[in-house]
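Sample log: dTDP-4-amino-4,6-dideoxygalactose transaminase.
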Amino acid sequence: EGSLDFDKRQFEAIIEENKKNNKILCILVTHLFGCPADFYGIKKIVGSKIPIVEDAAQAMGEKIENEKLGTLGDVGFFSLGRGKALSAMEGGVIVTDRNDLGGILSDLLKKIEVPSVLDRLKLAVKTILTTVLQHPVLFCLPKALPFLKLGETLYEEDFSIRQMSSFQKSLVGNWQKRLKGHQKTRKKNIIFWRENFPQIITQICAGQKKASLIRLPLLARSAEERDKVCLKSEAVGCGIMPTYPAPINEISQISEEFAGQYFPNAQQMAKCLMTIPVHEYVSERDRRRILKLIKT
């Protein structure tokens, strides 16, 4: 079948092969949308010789077995970008309990440039526009503001690295209390969807009852059905969006790395995946409108 898609037997075979050639730099475990990956199952297969990097970009504050996601591997990172569990519009957080990696990160931080006045001004404008446009009714407008790149999946090989500005620090002030507040709201909306969506709708991560996902992922029965729902949503401002438009082997910038490889499950998921907004700007009226659209 030639695919690694959720197939632990193939994963075990690759880890076993790596014992001969030692080509694997690290294993990246991703908690997509905030839905916990099977970290401990993966760790059992990988062992202790290969570093594990935890992509908790969308999972700040979430737990498995009472352990915080992002703190389980050798290195973990969280995103503070727009639409994440806690946002400073840009940037993120890297954590590690390894002294060697911690030292390297500390040295790197000392060399990073401070954002300019123009950088801070651009970020302030971007923050205001993004905050306003988060409301489902207004989410069709970003197409008229392409520089915001809302709803796009980008693969950028070259990007600047800057220290967090004082403006960004103010955006995440009192972050623990604010994060808990965001989680409470998202859980409330997710519970509503799960109790009211028709059974024909496939809900990803449905078994994670306590997860406060950043958006609720659903699988349509076909690409045509997904596109139809998203077009209707755009017309009436419901905020339902397609997500991750292609599997990794079809990302043009890195497709050569996957020459001859095909990932059918990932391709099918990319065609059928859509997400529902769950943030605090989603009102009771919005929930009813989205539910009506999905049911019809």
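Observation: The chain has one domain: 8-295.
Observation: DSSP finds nine helices and ten strands in the chain.
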